[in-house]
From TrEMBL:
PANTHER family: TYPE I RESTRICTION ENZYME ECOKI SPECIFICITY SUBUNIT (PTHR43140:SF1), TYPE-1 RESTRICTION ENZYME ECOKI SPECIFICITY PROTEIN (PTHR43140). SUPFAM superfamilies: DNA methylase specificity domain (SSF116734). Keywords: DNA-binding, Endonuclease, Hydrolase, Nuclease, Restriction system. The keyword Nuclease applies. One of its GO terms (molecular function) is endonuclease activity. Belongs to the type-I restriction system S methylase family. This is Restriction endonuclease subunit S. Residues 102-280, 418-563 form the Type I restriction modification DNA specificity domain. CDD domains: RMtype1_S_Apa101655I-TRD2-CR2_like (cd17244). It comes from Photobacterium leiognathi. The keyword Nuclease applies. It holds the Pfam family Methylase_S. Gene3D superfamilies: DNA methylase specificity domains.
């Protein structure tokens, strides 16, 4: 089977095997890794170094003759003192290495190329560095570019450094560089005369070894070498570099391999772009259709728009992101009053607001809470949603009794932490609307008495005021008496309000964007009382709050089932990809 047949027969697997990344990555979907395409690229290179990518030609001069000629070339260079005499390496035994095609040979890295690490001039010596046009480029790993050439560097060295540190001319343009420390196997071709640091080697292949061949195969070989753990990554040393084993094809076959790899990688680029375009178009379609739900003018239009989505449900919600978008749309519809029908018999929210105001007035009178600063009425341009019957627009301060801040940083330090004391609740302890106990962040009874005003009570809600704005957790009976931490708010409400509805509300994109700074046109990194208290919200009747929570929980169960099924399907795709690769090799 040719590689082209292997690609085309399994094209659906290569393009549909996708993994979710924890960090941003290449392509239109910043959280996705095109795992199938990554494995296909690796397979192409693996087939190349095993001699399975292009057919062998019995008329090619065998690599054994090439290596004999290189050995003579090296001996002459040593004699002329152009290179150092290499250290003796243990004999290569074929029993420890994969079989190679007829005419190929295994060789150690120093048998086919001369190489040398660079240097880093003392960074504190200003005379060694020159950022003017006279400076000579000095390449670090960050400057290397796997996809081709490197012609610019973030730093330049001076003539003084050239004379006193490097004591030789810069590495010539056209030379291949490879990192072997921290980031192993990152390669580039110099497009300018330059020096480089000690984590990079410049590579000079001997006659008959094609630089483009090494450029293709050396990165994976280096990564499979005897790497050692370092503080910031993995590293090869001079010994493990020398012991890298390289499969050496005849010179003419090296050219054929490079041409075929370039051809197939171009095909991979096209498939990858098509896949990314498809993912982007799918996400745009899902977003557009879900937006029709939140922008529906009335119940009839909402049902019409939902019917359009439900007809294509199985083809729309096929990615984690699309399911997460669906979840967010459900939450948004909930707080807009569009998820469940209104009941005209419900006590209107206006009566609830009056009751909350009366309770707050009594608490102020009893000096249990402070009187809040009066806020202006909600203007029309602050109301992004229509008002359903029985609901009321209000500011957050109108529906809460109190927003209390955790203790100032000067009141508690790491030295105050003890083992087995009273837990201190910080944003990192708020997971999925629940409080997770951390025994390493607890304080003594003496400290608790000093911070008694920051005690938590059942049915309080703690909220992060740093990092992920809107992250909340409900205080249960278990956590009563624990302490609110420095980076948190404690939110206290009238007993009638549904705490689950409040938690639901804080998960919506509207609330999170508002708290994150959208309301003031900037990005918030530390939420203050003013922004939170001023936030305009739609408040439903109490009975409606409970119906909304029940419906949302029901729909979230379905979404989670859908995501679990998707995860199983994705795992199957990844295993299938690995199986195809293993079988091909």
């Amino acid at each position: 089977m040719t590689v082209e047949t292997l690609i085309t027969q399994h094209i659906d697997t290569w393009t549909s095997a996708v993994k979710t990344k924890s960090t941003s990555g290449r392509g239109s979907s910043k959280k996705l890794e095109l795992y199938g395409m990554k494995k296909l690229r690796e397979l192409i290179l693996e087939l190349a170094v095993r001699g399975k990518l292009v057919p062998q030609d019995p008329n090619d001069e065998p690599a054994s003759v090439l290596l004999e000629r290189i050995a003579a070339e090296k001996a002459q260079l040593v004699k002329e003192k152009k290179i150092k005499k290499p250290k003796l390496l243990p004999p290569l035994t074929s029993q420890d290495l994969p079989n190679l095609p007829q005419g190929w040979e295994w060789a150690y890295f120093p048998d086919i190329a001369d190489y040398a690490p660079g240097k880093t001039p003392a960074t504190k010596n200003a005379t060694y560095w020159d950022e003017t046009e006279k400076g000579v480029p000095w390449i670090s790993i960050a400057d290397l570019n796997d996809t081709g050439t490197v012609e610019t560097s973030s730093k330049k060295v001076s003539e003084v450094a050239c004379e006193q540190v490097f004591k030789k001319n810069p590495v010539r343009s056209g030379t291949m560089l490879m990192s072997f420390k921290l980031t192993v196997g990152k390669v580039s071709i110099l497009d300018v005369d330059a020096y480089h640091n000690e984590a990079i080697i410049s590579i000079f292949p001997y006659t008959g070894i094609q630089q483009n061949y090494l450029f293709k195969v050396l990165p994976s070989i280096a990564n499979s070498g005897n790497k050692k753990n370092a503080i910031m990554g993995f590293t090869l040393n001079s010994e493990s570099l020398a012991l890298l084993t390289i499969p050496v094809p005849p010179t003419i076959e090296q050219h054929r391999i490079v041409a075929k790899v370039d051809e197939l990688m171009t095909l991979c680029d096209q498939l990858e772009q098509q896949t990314e375009d498809s993912i982007e178009a799918h996400q745009l379609l899902v977003s557009t259709l879900l937006n029709t739900l939140t922008h529906s003018a009335d119940a009839d239009e909402l049902m019409e728009n939902w019917a359009r989505i439900s007809d294509h449900f199985d083809t729309l919600f096929t990615t984690e992101e699309s399911i997460d978008q669906l979840k967010q749309t459900i939450l948004q519809l909930a707080v807009m009053g569009k998820l469940v029908p209104q009941d005209p018999n419900d006590e209107p929210a206006s009566v609830l607001l009056e009751r909350i105001a009366e309770e707050k007035a009594q608490l102020i009178k009893e000096k249990k809470i402070k009187k809040q600063k009066a806020l202006p009425p909600i203007a029309d341009d602050e109301k992004p949603f229509d008002l359903p019957n029985g609901w009321e627009w209000c500011r957050f301060s109108d529906m809460s009794n109190e927003v209390a801040t955790g203790p100032f940083g000067s009141m508690i330090h790491k030295r105050d932490y003890i083992e087995g004391g009273t837990p201190l609740i910080n944003p990192s302890h708020m997971i999925d609307s629940k409080i997770i106990e951390d025994n390493s962040i607890t304080v003594s009874d003496i400290k608790v008495s000093e911070l008694s005003s920051y005690k938590l009570f059942e049915n309080d809600i703690v909220m992060a005021r740093r990092g992920e704005m809107g992250r909340c957790a409900l205080v249960s009976k278990r956590e009563e008496g624990w302490l609110c931490g420095t980076g948190s708010f404690v939110l206290k409400f009238n007993q009638s309000l549904s705490r689950q509805y409040i938690l639901l509300m804080f998960r919506t994109s509207y609330v999170r964007e508002y708290l994150g700074g959208k309301s003031i046109g900037t990005t918030m990194t530390n939420l203050n009382h003013g922004i939170l208290n001023k936030m305009p919200l739609l408040l439903p009747p109490i009975a409606q709050q409970h119906r909304i929570v029940t419906k949302v929980e029901e729909m979230m169960v379905l979404c989670n089932q859908l995501k679990a099924r998707l995860e199983r399907s994705k795992t199957t795709q990844l295993h299938l990809t690995d199986a195809i690769v293993e079988q091909a090799i």
